[in-house]
Amino acid sequence: QVQLVESGGDLVQAGGSLRLSCVASGIWFRVTAMGWYRRAPGKQRELVASITSGGTTNYADSVKGRFTISRDNAKNTVYLQMDSLKPDDTGVYYCNKDPPYAYWGQGTQVTVSS
Fold first, then answer.
1. Which of 38, 67, 71, 114 is 20–30 Å from 78 (CA)?
2. Nearest partner of 5 among 75, 100, 108, judged by Cα
3. Three-state SS at 17
4. In what order do the strands lie in the sheet with 18-25?
């Protein structure tokens, strides 16, 4: 069955950086478009970055120029490099395919202090 395991979240000061990782299993990873999603406090979960099987990337306007999504098909892993973090980036970050499965992993908490 599908398993998505996110890691790398932490408490960081504004302006800092974090790198999130997500290991996927139970899917044909190399042909699957993947995304990073964020659930901010009191808000709906939103897609912040996506990457196709061919490596084409897309970003939400709120993170464009600060976040970079990448993938390593040999490791079934998708990454999210987050730079110049802002307090508004605080939330639980999840990976999933794009569009997402009904199943979600546990996510990883990112907290950005001002």
1. 114
2. 108
3. coil
4. 3-7, 18-25, 77-82, 67-72
